[in-house]
Every structure is written in C-alpha cells, then in structure tokens.
Amino acid sequence: MSNSGTLALTRVANSCVLLEAGGHAVLTDPFFTERWHLHRGEPLGLAVGDLPPLAAIVASHPYPNHWDLRALREYPHKASTAVYVSTPRMVRQARGLGFGRVERLAWGERREPVPGLSVEAAPAGRTLWWGRNAYVIEGGGARVYFGGEIRDVGLTARYRACAPAVDVALLPVNGLRPVLGPPIVMGPEEAVRGARALGARALVPVHDAHDEKDLPSRLIRRHGSARDAVALAGDGLEVVALPTGRRWVHPAAAP
User: The pTM is what?
Assistant: First the structure.
C-alpha cells in the first residue's frame, strides 16, 4: 500500500484499476471473472484476494465487464468499503451482496468515503436509458479522472471548464464500434484530446484489449490501442501504456 504522498496505479483488466492516493485505495469498474461470451483479452493483473482493504469502489455502468458481481461476492471488506454507482439497480445489487455503504451518485455529486479522499461523479454519456458515470478521485494532493466507458471528448472539456486540472486521466483507447452505428468508447485520438482537455500530465489508457473470439466481436470491432495513443501524444503529455499487473507510480508523487 502506498504512503500518503504517493499516487500509484495498477491495471487489473479492461477499465478495472487499483488506484492508490493519499494512503487510500480505490478500485474502478471491477472486472475479474470471465463469462462464456465475455473475455478479458489480456492477463488478469490482480485477483480479488490480492486487493488491499478499499476505501471505495466506483463503477461506470452495469455491464458485467465494468460491474462484476460474481467477483464482488468474494470481496471480504464489504462493511467498511464505500461503493459509488450510476444506477438505482446497481445500488440494490451491491446491498444484496452485503455492502453497507452504497450510493448512486448523480453527475456533480461528491462524497468523502474516508477523511482526505474525495470522489466526484462526472458525466460520461448514456447507454440506452441509463447514464454512465466518470469519476474524479482526489487524495494526497493528486487528482485522477477516470472515464471507464466514455466516448465524447466534449464532456471532458466541459468538466474542465468548471474544475481544476487533473494530474492523471484514465480514458478508453480501443474505440469499439458496432459494424453499423457510432463508436461506443473513445479511440486513441479522442483519449489524447480528452486528456489534454482535462489538463492531465499523464494518460493511462484503459478499455484497451478486445478478445476477437467473443460473440459480441462479430458485431463490434476495435479501432485503436494504447500503442496508438503513445504515438499520438506529443509534447506535454505522457502516455503510460500500462500492462496489467504492473504498478506505476506517478513521477510527481514518487518518494
């Protein structure tokens, strides 16, 4: 676990990241268990049993590779961990698993799960009838923007117009797109533009891998990667293409 002055990230899979800030741990978009139709397309970076006690879990929306209820059943610290989600049904599901501190956060709402750590919900667009959340996590003097499934660069620009810059942005890069229809998430170009709009010094790509053997892959195709984002970054923005399981410490916060 990090000390109070360290900002560190460990990618687990897809948009699931263990974030350490201000001496506290936050897990984003939990995804540990595969389904017959839904695979990671990359190694699992951490198991549920490897997680430290978490101050909070945040989830973008209820699709199982962002909201893994099977894995959360095995998490042992349900009484003390705050859970922030985007829909009322997710609240009911988390409470049904035994989590005692669960809230749906509307866009613009902020909570402090433990002293010295704040979580704010930000707009990330909509999937059918439900809104998706991005989150800004602040602790130990660092600000991290997490958009686990966001498509519109304009949402990052509008957030930044009313808020301080962030240190690190976690944004999707594989640009998933149906054979017919608009993209589902950002591709590498949009992720770089989004990170710049947020004033971030570093972009850590998420939502990168895509298993071509999955049933949905017959209808949804990948249009980009973390490697592409690295090539597009240019001056003033570091793109950290983080393999799953590797812990990265933000240079400005390194001891």
Answer: 0.95
Q: How many of the other CB atoms lie within 10 Å of CB of 4?
A: 12
Both tokens of residue 72?
């959360």
**Amino acid, single-letter form, for residue 137:** I
Length of the chain: 255
Residue 198 has pLDDT above 90, yes or no: yes
Q: List, in sequence order, every residue forming a beta bridge with 104; answer none if it has no partner.
A: 85
Question: What's the pLDDT at 244?
Answer: 97
CATH code matching the domain that covers 7-244, chosen among 3.60.15.10, 2.30.40.10, 3.40.50.2300, 3.10.290.10: 3.60.15.10
For residue 219, count CB atoms less than 10 angstroms from its CB and return exposed for 0-12, middle for 13-18, buried for 19 or more. exposed
Give me 186's structure tokens.
Answer: 């950002």
Nearest by Cα to 107 from 162, 144, 53: 162
- Helix and strand element counts for the chain (H, E): 5, 16
Contacts of 190 (CB under 8 A, 6+ apart): 151, 153, 171, 175
Residue 35 DSSP label = B
For residue 120, give both structure tokens: 């704010």
Q: Which letter does DSSP use for residue 38 in this model?
A: B
Structure tokens at 90: 């997710």
Q: How does residue 80 score in pLDDT terms, banded at 50, 70 and 90?
A: very high
How far from chain centre, in Å, is Cα 53?
A: 18
Q: Distance of alpha carbon 171 from its chain centroid, rounded? A: 7
